[in-house]
Amino acid sequence: MSKDQFSRREFLGVSAAAVAGASLAGTPALSTLAAARRLAPSDRVRFGMIGIGMQGNNLLGTSIRLDGVECAAACDLYDGRHTLAREIVRPDLPVTRRYKELLDNKDIDCIVAAVPDHWHRQVVIDAVSAGKDIYCEKPMSHTPADGVAMVDAAKKSGRIVQIGSQRVSSQICAKAKDMIAQGMLGEMMLIEGWLGRNDPNGAWEYPPPPDLSPANLDWNTWQGTVTPKVAFNPYIFARWRCWREYGTGVAGDLLVHLVSGMMYMTGMNQPPTQAMAVGSIRRWKDGRNMPDVHSVLYYYGDLPVSMRLNLGTAMPETYRFQGTKGLLEVTGDRITFTPQSGKDESPSYYAYSFPRALRDAYFKKWHEENDPKIGQVPMPETISFSGPDYDDIRPHLWNFFEAVRNRRPVVEDIVFGHNAALACHMANDSYFKRSAVSSANMSVSSG
């Protein structure tokens, strides 16, 4: 198990329950993957890969191992990743620096994109406008305005868009979702989530490719059309998440997982109504302008939600759903529900401020009305589910390819992705403004 547990693009789920005799082996994620092995060759989906970096090469390698899925071509602005794509797929794979060549290719059914955040808007809009379905990595957008434009383009085109925050394809999240939907928690009072890392790689201190240069990288195009142009810098290329000009910081990398998981488990497909964030650059003082400690308090309607991110202390990704009937904790490989009655378990200690006669009468009446009969003492049981490591990237990609093949809805569409990304943008906006912000004029309808 990784020390981040849920983090870094791999999420731990469960395949069987260790307690209470329950099983998760029949969940949709496993059944859809089993179906993948029964596809006929005529049902093959051909995709084009845009971006073959750290996450992109993972998505590419995972996708081509799904039966009935084939990579037809790949694109990256760094020529070294052309070599990498061919190493992953096949030596004669068509490669290019120009992704529009993939969009013009009539033999390509859909696109899988893993590019820096500041390129998400253009790639998604160009793809759907060209009639291509697209899987786009999280966070969906670089800014709220980008997200609105992406939703509008997707709705206008009618193309399928799946956003790559894979919590919504996790078995353990699906189990927690069922438990919440059944009313086991009663009325939701408060939701907490947190995640921390404590190592240079976890803080995006990635080593640039040793041969990287303007000769084998189209640096001018990589910078995009909106951000100010700067001199070639291999560290910006490898560590773009550190700067708001290209990325969305710890909010877009990690908070989006917490938020999308929380949205999925609770069924709240909406942005926060308000956010208030604090944070700072406390450890990684390397020139970045995005915080490495970021704590956010949200209101979802009137429900308070607290999320905490830290790149200086390792903490396993954890959710705590607090309700009137108990506490549900979701961690890397375990779900634990601890029921609570919400009732007094003993007479009120406030009665000790009564005169003795009144106090004794109160105690007598309380016990007569509340003490259980002999042999009928309630025995509330904590319920726990646990399981082995589980990769949710495969079922998330498979859901997308199945949607492309059968024209059915995906599990994380563009409206869900926009709502999750808005929470991250609000966290960043509040951090930089040092004040509360609202989601007014940022949200979109699900219709």
Report on this model:
- The chain has 447 residues and is of the alpha/beta class.
- The protein has a domain at 28-168 and 393-420: Rossmann fold (3-Layer(aba) Sandwich), CATH 3.40.50.
- Helix content is 32%, strand content 19%.
- It contains 13 helices and 15 strands.
- The protein has helices at 28-36, 54-63, 80-88, 100-103, 120-129, 144-157, 171-181, 219-222, 234-238, 249-266, 356-370, 393-406, 414-433; strands at residues 45-50, 69-75, 95-96, 110-113, 133-137, 161-164, 188-196, 274-280, 293-300, 303-310, 315-323, 326-330, 334-339, 383-386, 437-438.
- The protein has a nine-stranded mixed beta sheet with strand order 14-13-12-11-7-10-9-8-15, covered by helices on one side.
- The chain is elongated, with a radius of gyration of 25 Å.
- The two termini are 40 Å apart.
- Residues 1-37 have low confidence and may be disordered.
